[in-house]
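Recall the central idea of this unit: under ordinary conditions, the amino acid sequence of a chain determines the structure it adopts. In this exercise we apply that idea directly, starting from the sequence alone.
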Amino acid sequence: MVVLDEKNKIAAFAAAHELHVALGYFDGLHLGHQTLLDYVLQAAGEKGGQAGVLLIEPHPLKILRGNGGIRNLNTLEDKIRLIQAYGDIHVFILPFDREFAGLSPEAFVRDYLAGLLQIRTAACGFNYSFGKGGAGKSETLCRLGEIYGFSCGILPKITYKGKTVSSTEIRRFIEKGHMKEACSLLGHSHIYTGKVIGGNKLGTRLGFPTANLELNQELTWPAYGVYGGFVQEEDGSIHRAVINAGIRPTVKQEDKKPSFEANLINFSGDLYEKTLRVALTDRLRPEKTFADLDGLRRQIAIDEKNAVEALNSWEAALEKKHKTIETIFSYNKDFYHHLPVPR
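Accordingly, the structure predicted from this sequence is:
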């Protein structure tokens, strides 16, 4: 499987392969996105050729509205891993800039889908839009496909327990701290990746040492608060954890920049400068200010007890499905079997 972001290399690959390509931004790679991947994988299997995804990066709103336009669910690197974990799917990346934003719908289809990629099949969601000002719709794509010689599949709206599956809805759930609901729409766990950096060592002084993770500030952050979750080290080992995401209101600090700190339960070792992956499972409580550090210490002990109970529930649910906790972090097809979400 290839990942190509240079036009000449994309053109050379396309000239040698018949491509069936899914279109969209694929932020989160949720249940709806997965139906698009299924469609192009099936097309490749039935018609011959290769399945692919065309990504336009960065998100158009980041260019048109600046960094305040949108907060992604994944970094580009994680998005690519998710896509290629799903199946034998090539990834083609085109840069979005103001010149690209000015393309008419037909110019995009003519120059990029039919021209650069020479696609045989295009697949998109029911609400897909493209071209200047989003003037092109999914029906436009199919009409242009008839002109330029490729077939087109429009996938219907996907719902889960009455909720429309969309990246926007998933961001809302995460921003409210509703991680179970977010995972239900994703069809998999939501992972944060960060390197452990130095902190103020307050957790160590309180008897609960924490790993302070440096996260991409442009990603969707969870609602501030304390969470139960699982943490995976670089060597693959997995630990239960209590995670604080927020500004730590009890701690006096000049810079109230949000922090993401994980206390690995029953763990001893040095995690400094290591990269950790964190799956939040349950929001245990919102952040709150304590009168003194003794009050904070007592609450952290309670948080750990509550986290253990919540994580027991997750592990029991996975066991019922004959799955292990490694499923949460695995970048393979098993990652997409709907995780049993405890209620």
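The first strand starts at residue 3 and ends at 4.
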